[in-house]
Amino acid sequence: MASQIDGTATTLTRNKALLDWVRDCAALCQPDRIVWCDGSEAEKERLTKHAVDTGVLIPLNPAKRPGCYLHRSNPNDVARVEHLTFICTKTQEAAGPTNNWMAPEEAYGKLTKLFHGSMKGRTMYVIPYVMGPLGSPLSRVGLEITDSVYVVLNMRIMTRMGKPALDMLGDSNDFNRGLHCTGDLNPERRYICHFPEDNTIWSFGSGYGGNALLGKKCLALRIGSWLGKDEGWFAEHMLILGVESPDGHMTYVTGAFPSACGKTNFAMMIPPKRFAKWKVWTVGDDIAWMRVGKDGRLWAVNPENGYFGVAPGTNFGSNPNAMKTIARDTIFTNVAMTKDGDVWWEGMDGEVPDELTDWQGRPWKKGSTEKAAHPNSRFTAPMTNNPVLSKHVNDPEGVPISAIVFGGRRATTVPLVLQSFNWAHGVFLGATLGSETTAAATGKVGVVRRDPMAMLPFAGYNMGEYLQHWLDMQEKIPYPPKLFQVNWFRKGKDGKFLWPGFGENMRVLKWIVDRAHVRVGGQETPFGWVPKAGDLDLSGLDIPAEKVDEATHIDAGEWKQELTEEADFFEMLGKFSPETLQLQRKLLLSRLD
Ligand code: TSX
Ligand code: MN
């Protein structure tokens, strides 16, 4: 409830470090009032009403989308801003060659000026939250201070938010300090600054998801990866899924994929008819925190509580479970709206409506050259809506991981599936992940962007050291998961995709699971283990065998070129670039000669 301006008058906590920090933030930002969020239903109703009254949220038709709202962001504030995202460590070396760096004093100085008086006339919300299952030793408590009611309502879906977080924190000083202010949304005054040495995040000038929902990319990945290196665990940009075989046996797999590779689709995949007795269960669609368990295996939790997914392209063909997940209690951001108060985006099922209101609130007519929904429009939906949500998502110890999959978007070169020879070779496969650019937004389309472990924008420290951490973890994991590389996006000479993808990926997933349990043989190649002829179950799949052959083919000539590019990338990583990975590259080259 609203409290004194000094920020101490809450009945929710007596944690002195927390109260002091809130008081300091209030003194800096000078809000008119402070609201401590308890995470209750009553609070949700009150804040939702406030958001509707102030035009922050537009109610959707409750008959079509019960409990759903539309938010339109400022058109200049629709995506993460990598060029304005900084790792603020004492030395530039700690941030490394792939991150923007700012000295902590400079960043605190610059942002203190921006935050000063920035909440005058506004409400300061104090959001306690937990990333990870309540009570789990893998979980972390964060506090986010924000002046955005949209952020509060999104954090409510994406994290375990409110009183349970304060109860878990108790009187401990070990919490992430996140300060966020919307500001005037001027991109010239927009900074997303991480201070991993202080477990602190300061974000100014953006209301957009990845910049403003500080638990997700900022804490769970950038700060998380830093903590993981210090403490001997992994914070990764990975989905977590469980594969249930007909006899009821569960195998858990994590997967790292760069953006625009369909990670959420894979995490919620429905096996095709041929695999009717198989089931895929979602544990997480974006982030995995993994730690060595008492049994010597790697165990993973999903630190999140919801899905912040890309809307365009989501439909009952590509992802039926996502469509069911967003049927209720979902916040949509920058999608188009239909005449009858439902949502719409490019790539939705059915006919394109004749008339819509576009993502900027303007009238839109079928045939328009402009997109009705923003290409980066989103849904924020509670994971409990997912029909295939794993019943183990809240298990404090997480789920045991048998396989890790690294996937990129590559039209050539990289085969459908490959298993590494060993841990170091698997880390090499992950480190050399590349994805071809899709959207015209970046200018060139089809250029390979190296994205090690899909962590390029999210590693909170030196990328070379990050890869070394992956190599070093081998000796800490007595029973490590098996490591794989996949590529759903290989194209034929006609420019068409060779592999049908989506649910049919179950065929590849089954081989991965069988290999992880050493239930199936493999064919050794210079590149790794691949399925023996006949081992990929293709029954009931009506595509020509030649297409699968082409999708799994490895061309030595293409690979020589690939290995040259990889050398440049390892070179660019500088003095912390692990020798072991260069050695893996040279070994592969020598196997080719
Ligand atoms: O999500 C995708 N996955 C993983 C699904 C479990 N997508 C969509 C990517 C954009 C986010 C895919 N697109 C996948 C895929 O496996 N594969 C492709 C490429 C593709 C696109 C269309 C077809 C086939 C492959 N259509 C037909 O074959 C008719
Ligand atoms: Mn992501």
Quick structural gist:
With 593 residues, the chain is an alpha+beta fold. It has three domains: 2-55 and 80-231, Phosphoenolpyruvate Carboxykinase, domain 1 (3-Layer(aba) Sandwich), CATH 3.40.449; 236-302 and 393-592, Phosphoenolpyruvate Carboxykinase, domain 3 (Alpha-Beta Complex); 307-385, Phosphoenolpyruvate Carboxykinase, domain 2. Manganese (II) ion is lined by residues 237, 286.
Strand content: 15-25%
Largest sheet data: 10 strands, mixed
CATH class of the largest domain: Alpha Beta
How many angstroms separate the termini?
70 Å
Q: Which topology of the largest domain does CATH recognise?
A: Phosphoenolpyruvate Carboxykinase, domain 3
Q: What class, by secondary structure content?
A: alpha+beta
Number of strands: 32
Task: Characterise the protein shown here.
- The structure is a single chain.
- A hairpin with a 5-residue loop joins strand 23 and strand 24.
- Helix content is 27%, strand content 23%.
- It is globular, with a radius of gyration of 24 Å.
- The longest helix has 17 residues, at 215-231.
- Strands 1, 2, 5, 6, 7, 8, 9, 10, 11 and 12 form a 10-stranded mixed sheet that branches. Strands 13, 14, 15, 16, 17, 18, 26, 27 and 30 form a 9-stranded mixed sheet that branches. Strands 3-4-20-25-19 form a 5-stranded mixed sheet, with helices on one face.
- It folds into 3 domains: 2-55 and 80-231, 3-Layer(aba) Sandwich (Phosphoenolpyruvate Carboxykinase, domain 1), CATH 3.40.449.10; 236-302 and 393-592, Phosphoenolpyruvate Carboxykinase, domain 3 (Alpha-Beta Complex), CATH 3.90.228.20; 307-385, Phosphoenolpyruvate Carboxykinase, domain 2.
- Manganese (II) ion binds at residues 237, 286.
